[in-house]
Design brief:
Elements: E1 10-12, H1 14-26, E2 34-41, E3 47-54, E4 62-66, E5 69-73, H2 75-81, E6 84-91, E7 94-100, E8 106-107, E9 113-115
Parallel strand pairs: 1-6, 2-5
Antiparallel strand pairs: 2-3, 3-9, 4-5, 6-7, 8-9
């Protein structure tokens, strides 16, 4: 019998990891940069994801690392982001980053906003 491990952080897929690395290189950002993820009010479902590169942590930041990529969020946003995986798609249906969030009870058609 296997014991289930509770996921409590923010994670990144292999495709997203590769794309983040490419973007950091293209933009000439050093190893001190990380991915800052947050949740802000907005969008047709009420909440929207925000993602940027940053190199300074702030008081209260929650810091996670997955596959060698540092993912940082604020204390308020982590409540919405527990067990969320940052993914990247480059297929015909659209190209870009998206969040696989098990906490979202509803998402809009474009996938840019969600509610819990």
């Amino acid at each position: 019998m296997e014991t289930a491990t509770m996921m409590t952080g923010i994670y990144i897929s292999e495709k997203a990891k590769l794309r983040v690395g490419q973007l950091l290189h293209e933009e000439g950002r050093g190893d001190d940069y990380f991915v800052r993820v947050s949740v802000v009010s907005g969008g047709c479902s009420g909440l929207t994801y925000k993602m940027d590169f940053d190199n300074e942590t702030k008081q209260g930041d929650q810091i996670f690392e997955d596959k060698g990529i540092k993912l940082v969020t604020d204390r308020k946003s982590i409540l919405y982001l527990f067990s969320t995986t940052l993914d990247y798609t480059d297929g015909l249906d659209g190209k870009g980053f998206h969040f696989m969030n098990p906490n979202a009870s509803r998402t809009c058609a474009c996938g840019e906003s969600f509610s819990v």
